[in-house]
Amino acid sequence: MSLVTLDLAIPILLAHAPVWVNALPCRVAAGFPSPAEDHAVKRLDLMEQLIKHPQATFLLRVRGESMKDAGIFDNDVVLVDRAINPRSGHVVVAVVDGEFVCKTLWQRAGRMKLKAANPTFADISPRDGQTVEIWGVVVAAIKQLRT
User: What per-residue confidence (pLDDT) applies to 48?
Assistant: First the structure.
């Protein structure tokens, strides 16, 4: 079986076909071990869990480390919902001077800036004449771990 890598430098609209996965009705400990639970496996539609507005949800691949403190790393794939009204505190994808960026939206007293989630990166405060469009709200980040 070969692995296909998607070039997600441009947004890809998601089809709303079910993606079924097996789900155990328990949580897994990430700290102290807990006794194994013997539960029946339940079927779960992954698309239904992650996507509320299928016609407005897109995938984009993240490039860079400016959002690492928000848990979004280089090469992660983000699900972006364009139907959600962006609010201050949301992680968003914005278009700044024609380029996609992923940042946290900050709004106060009629001012807006796009905040990095990594102190080594500068925030983006729009200048006069600069084009900034909030393109959509990030609802999930997908990362592929080494196997």
Answer: 79
Segments in the chain below pLDDT 70: 1-41
Instruction: Look up the pTM and report it.
Output: 0.76
Give every CB contact of residue 10 below 8 A, 6+ residues apart in sequence.
60
| Count of structural domains, the chain | 1
Structural domain contains residue 85: yes
Q: What is the CATH number of the domain that holds 110?
A: 2.10.109.10
Residue carrying structure tokens 């009629």:
110
- Give me the pLDDT at residue 31, please: 62
- Tell me which residues are annotated as active site: 66, 103
Give residue 33's pLDDT: 59
User: Per the domain annotation, does 130 fall within a domain?
Assistant: yes
Domain enclosing residue 124, as ranges: 53-142
Residue 11 counted as domain residue: no
